[in-house]
Design a protein that fits this description.
single chain; rod-shaped; mainly alpha; 90 residues
C-alpha cells in the first residue's frame, strides 16, 4: 500500500512540475512577444524622428530662402528665428 501511495505522490509532483513548466513557457511567450513589439515601436519612432529632422531642415532652408527674398523689417525676422528656436526637437 505504501508503494502505491509513493507512486501516486510521485505522479502528482511530476504533474505539478509539468504544469509549472507549461505555465513558465506561457509567461515567457507573452513577455517575449511584448519585448518584440516594443522593439518594433522603438524602430518606428526612431525612423519618424529622422524624418522629422529632415523635414525641419528643409523647412529651415525654405525659411532662409524666403527671408532672403523678402525685404521685411529685421524685427520680424528675429522674432521668427526666436520662435523656431522655442520649438523642442525630440
Amino acid at each position: 500500500m505504501n508503494e502505491l501511495a509513493n507512486g501516486a505522490a510521485g505522479l502528482a509532483s511530476a504533474g505539478f512540475i509539468f504544469a509549472l513548466v507549461i505555465l513558465g513557457l506561457i509567461v515567457w511567450f507573452f513577455v517575449n512577444r511584448a519585448s518584440v513589439k516594443a522593439s518594433q515601436h522603438i524602430r518606428l519612432l526612431e525612423s519618424l524622428l529622422e524624418e522629422q529632422k529632415r523635414q525641419t531642415l528643409l523647412l529651415s532652408r525654405l525659411n532662409e530662402v524666403l527671408a532672403g527674398n523678402e525685404q521685411g523689417d529685421s524685427a520680424a525676422d528675429s522674432q521668427n528665428r526666436e520662435f523656431i528656436r522655442l520649438i523642442p526637437e525630440r
